[in-house]
Structure formats: structure tokens, C-alpha cells
């Protein structure tokens, strides 16, 4: 019995190591193109001409709604070229009243059967399309966000350059509230520089982040929104790839997002992300791979590989745990575990993983002692992804929306001064 168990463990670990290594080399290879930032045209070289509908999706956000609306009205962009809309989605508080007091155009939506941000956006898009005043593009934000004053200038530049869908830089407005918020912030800083930016440089598709993105209205009308799962951003990214569109990137269009403060809040949010990720993987993996191999489409291939990313993370976690057990208990069932690649290769691989992050964040000029402390606890945050991913994939058919409470009252002026 023990011999059979050892054989199963041995074979399983070999397969996991190969997948981890190949996928790691793939993602690392792409990330290299983001090490050096290229000089781009100044947004001031492009005359403001695009008209924007700025949409804020809000559900019981009376604590923070005023700050996002105020930050949008502080844009360094002609006021006649943008309007601010707030969707008061199934709200039972004063979100709608406060948003209206601060100048937003408020639409109240009450629908208990079609709940969630994706449904609210689809409802609002239909209203935008039917308006007499025509817009060139729509930008979407969350109620807890704060938006940099140059956001629309940057989006106008990218749209004038011919891009149809653009994602802005997602930063954190509360990175040092707790070890969870700091870990979240590190994850997003890393993603911005080694996932999003290099894909933009290589002509691949960046990923929509659920907020701070901009879509050409004609594209939205052509392919439709239809993204109503628990991760509508991921769903629409894959839909774009299948429709021969890609997501561009704007590194200087900064949107500050409020990160969950407690592990419980974080767990629920990330479980929802993994439920949506599993749902998207089940629906889009096949079509993306078929498009990739039939048409030689690298964008579709890269999107398909990204859908495998959570599985790779689970494998890394399991291999790490097995190695720890093997070290502490040499006579455990993992004693005969062998490395597919030489041990020195794995040491280099692991070392790069730990050194890579601090160097990337340093290049973004966010490195300080608190961030250094964050990298010491960041591995524990990463480990929590393992049970979250498993739980999310096992409950992918659960479509109940889990709302994250937001409570940080921070204005854009306070944040930019800090």
C-alpha cells in the first residue's frame, strides 16, 4: 500500500514540476519585456477630442461614493467632454442622494434576480446607447476608487492612437492598513509591471481589472457586453480576444483601489474571483485554444494560458508543502520525491521568485521599509491562494455575488499629497 502511494506521489510530483517550470519560464520570459519602461508620447500632444461616459457601479457605498465622484470631476480634461454616471444598484442607503449632491447623474436600479456588477453595467450600457448625446468611449470604475487627474488625458491619447480597449494602472489607496492590504498592493504592483506592461509592449492583450478601464462605444455595441459572471472583467477580456480585439495599457492613468483590510474580507473576495475564473476557464479555454492553433493567434494562446494560472499556483503550493514535509520528516511518503530538473536549477528558480518582486517594486519607486516588511509576509498571502483557489473551483456554479464593504474615507487630494 505504501509502495503504491509512493509511486502515485512520485509520478504526480514529476508532472507538477514540469508544468510549474514550463509555465514559470513562459511568464518570466514575457515579464522581461516590462523591466525597462519605454518613453511614450505625452498626452498633451493629443488634443482632447474623445467624449467619455464615466460610470461608477455602486451598491450601498454611502461612505465612499462622494470621493470617487469628486476625483472624477477633478480631471484635467474639458468638462464638456465627459459626464459622470452613478448606478445606485439595489441600494438601501444614501448612495444615490450623496452622489447626486456631488454632481453625478444617478440611475437607480432595483433587480433582485440579476444581481452583481456585470448585470448593472449591462443595464447602464443600454441606457447610454439610447441617449441623444453620443459618447466615444465608456470608462468603468468602482465606488471605492480614486482617479488620478490625468486619467482622461491618458485615455484620450490611447484612443487617438487607435486602441479600442484600454486598462489603467491599478494602485492602492490603503496599502499600509494591514498585512492583507499590503500583500494585495504588492500583488497589484507586480502585476502592473511584469504582467500588464510587457504584454502591451509585445502586442498581446492585457487583462481588464474590473475598474479603471475604457471601451470604445462602437466596439461595445458590436460585440455586446454579456459579461455577467462573478468576474465580468476576465469574461469580457476573453470575449474580446475571441472577437479579435485586445486590451491596451496606460501606465500613467492611475486608479487607486481600496483593498480589503481583513483576511476574512480578502478570502471572500478572492474566492469569488476564483469562482468566476473557473467559470470562464470552463467556457473559454476550448474556443481560445482552437483559435490559437487554427489561426496562429498568439493573443488567444496567451489568454488561454492565463486561465491555467490558478492551477499552476496550486501546484507550486503543493510542491512547496511537500518539500517542507520532506525536509522536516525525511521518512515521510515524500522521501523518494525527485526533481525533474537539477536541484541547482530549482534553487535558482526559487531565488528568482523571491528577489524578483522587490526589484520590480523598487523600479516602480514604491520601495521602503514597510514594503520590505510586506515582502516577508507576502509568501503567506500567496499560500492562502491555494485553499481559496480549490474552494473557488469547487463552487464555481455558485453565482451569488459577495459584496466587499468599503470604509476608507480618503480623498484624491489627500492621497496625492501623501
Could you give the order of strands across the largest sheet? Answer: 3-2-1-4-7-6-8-5
Portion of residues within helices: 40-55%
* CATH level-two architecture: Alpha-Beta Complex
Q: How much strand?
A: 5-15%
User: Total number of β-strand segments?
Assistant: 8
Uncertain parts: none
CATH superfamily: Spore Coat Polysaccharide Biosynthesis Protein SpsA, Chain A
Task: Please provide the ordered H/E string of secondary-structure elements.
Answer: HEHEHEHEEHEHEHHEHHHHHH
Taken from the alpha-carbon principal axes, the silhouette is: globular
CATH topology: Spore Coat Polysaccharide Biosynthesis Protein SpsA, Chain A
Q: What is the averaged pLDDT score?
A: 86
- Quick one: biggest sheet? 8 strands, mixed
What structural class do you assign from the helix and strand content?
alpha/beta
Q: What is the CATH domain class?
A: Alpha Beta
Question: What does this entry look like structurally?
Answer:
By secondary structure, the chain is of the alpha/beta class. It has a single domain (1-277, 307-417), classed as Spore Coat Polysaccharide Biosynthesis Protein SpsA, Chain A, CATH 3.90.550.10. Helices cover 54% and strands 12% of the residues. The chain contains 14 helices and 8 strands. The chain has an 8-stranded mixed sheet, sandwiched between helices. Helix 2 (65-73) links the parallel strand 1 and strand 2 (82-89). Helix 9 (263-295) runs antiparallel to helix 10 (298-307). The radius of gyration is 22 Å and the shape is globular. The termini are far apart. The mean pLDDT is 86. Pfam families: Glyco_tranf_2_3.
Amino acid at each position: 500500500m505504501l509502495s503504491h502511494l509512493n509511486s502515485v506521489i512520485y509520478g504526480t510530483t514529476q508532472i507538477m514540476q514540469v508544468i510549474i517550470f514550463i509555465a514559470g519560464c513562459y511568464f518570466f520570459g514575457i515579464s522581461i519585456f516590462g523591466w525597462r519602461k519605454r518613453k511614450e508620447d505625452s498626452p498633451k500632444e493629443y488634443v482632447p477630442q474623445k467624449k467619455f461616459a464615466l460610470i461608477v457601479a455602486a451598491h450601498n457605498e454611502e461612505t465612499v461614493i462622494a470621493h470617487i465622484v469628486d476625483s472624477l470631476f477633478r480631471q484635467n480634461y474639458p468638462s464638456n467632454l465627459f459626464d459622470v454616471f452613478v448606478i445606485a444598484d439595489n441600494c438601501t442607503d444614501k448612495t444615490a442622494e450623496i452622489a447626486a449632491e456631488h454632481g453625478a447623474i444617478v440611475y437607480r436600479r432595483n433587480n433582485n434576480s440579476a444581481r452583481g456588477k456585470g448585470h448593472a453595467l449591462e443595464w447602464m450600457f443600454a441606457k447610454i446607447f439610447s441617449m441623444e448625446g453620443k459618447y466615444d468611449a465608456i470608462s468603468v470604475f468602482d465606488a471605492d476608487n480614486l482617479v488620478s487627474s490625468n486619467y482622461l488625458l491618458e485615455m484620450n491619447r490611447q484612443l487617438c492612437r487607435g486602441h479600442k480597449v484600454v486598462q489603467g494602472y491599478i494602485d492602492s489607496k490603503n496599502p499600509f492598513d494591514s498585512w492583507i492590504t499590503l500583500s494585495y498592493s504588492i500583488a497589484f504592483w507586480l502585476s502592473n509591471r511584469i504582467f500588464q506592461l510587457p504584454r502591451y509592449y509585445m502586442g498581446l492583450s492585457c487583462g481588464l481589472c474590473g475598474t479603471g478601464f475604457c471601451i470604445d462605444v462602437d466596439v461595445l455595441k458590436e460585440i455586446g457586453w454579456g459579461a455577467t459572471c462573478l468576474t465580468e472583467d476576465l469574461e469580457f477580456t476573453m470575449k474580446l480576444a475571441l472577437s479579435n480585439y485586445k486590451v491596451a495599457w496606460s501606465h500613467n492613468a492611475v486608479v487607486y483601489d481600496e483593498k480589503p483590510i481583513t483576511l476574512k474580507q480578502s478570502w471572500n473576495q478572492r474566492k469569488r474571483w476564483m469562482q468566476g475564473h473557473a467559470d470562464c476557464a470552463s467556457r473559454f479555454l476550448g474556443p481560445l485554444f482552437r483559435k490559437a492553433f487554427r489561426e496562429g493567434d498568439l493573443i488567444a494562446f496567451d489568454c488561454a494560458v492565463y486561465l491555467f494560472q490558478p492551477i499552476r499556483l496550486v501546484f507550486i503550493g503543493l510542491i512547496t508543502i511537500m518539500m517542507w514535509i520532506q525536509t522536516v520528516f525525511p521518512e515521510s511518503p515524500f522521501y523518494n520525491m525527485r526533481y525533474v530538473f537539477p536541484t541547482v536549477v530549482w534553487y535558482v528558480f526559487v531565488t528568482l521568485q523571491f528577489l524578483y518582486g522587490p526589484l520590480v517594486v523598487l523600479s516602480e519607486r514604491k520601495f521602503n521599509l514597510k514594503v520590505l516588511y510586506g515582502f516577508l509576509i507576502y509568501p503567506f498571502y500567496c499560500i492562502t491562494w491555494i485553499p481559496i483557489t480549490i474552494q473557488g473551483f469547487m463552487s464555481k456554479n455558485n453565482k451569488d455575488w459577495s459584496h466587499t464593504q468599503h470604509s476608507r474615507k480618503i480623498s484624491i487630494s489627500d492621497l496625492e499629497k501623501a
